[in-house]
Amino acid sequence: MKMKFHPATILQIMIVLLGIAALAILIYLPLTEGRAENLDLFSIYSDPLILYGYATSLLFFAVLYKTFKLLDLIKQKNIFEQNAIRILRSIRQYTIIFNVLILLAGFYIVLFHAKEDDPVGFIVICFGITFISLFAAAASKVIAAILQKGIELKSE
């Protein structure tokens, strides 16, 4: 007997795995940072930049949750509803706020990094995340417009 998964279910599984991977990175990465080698756990995780990263990551996890909910609507064949457009609008807003917070972190590092540190790697990561989040915001706007048109056609 062959098990058949809905494509949205496979994407939901991928979202959960992405969330777990991101959480593992958020927990493990501060321990490997150069400044952390002589610090205790409390000092590592109470660093203002680490706390800023955790606060910013809440938006990332909110986007994952909203995307999971959107995929639920797709599985239930309820995608052409206003609820889907509201979810897409919130995804776009969260990604734009996330983008601004990442850019602020990048500017902070450029302006206030220690002279012996090389911030280039962090800046490249900021640019990569900015590009991805802008793409997600634009995609959610386009998909919301398509769904809105579909809802209008459905009501006629």
Write a structural description:
The protein has 156 residues and is mainly α. It has one domain. It contains 5 helices and no strands. The protein is elongated. The mean pLDDT is 88.
The helix fraction, in percent, is over 70%
Q: Outline, from the CA principal axes?
A: elongated
Strand content: under 5%
Which class best fits the helix and strand makeup? mainly alpha
Instruction: Provide the succession of SSEs.
Output: HHHHH
Quantity of strands, as a count = 0
Number of domains: 1
- Cα-based radius of gyration, to the nearest Å: 19 Å
Mean pLDDT: 88
Task: Summarize this entry quickly.
By secondary structure, the protein is mainly alpha-helical. The protein has 5 helices and no strands. Helix 1 packs antiparallel against helix 3 and helix 3 runs antiparallel to helix 4.
Quick tags:
single chain, 156 residues, mainly alpha, 5 helices, 81% helix, 0% strand, elongated
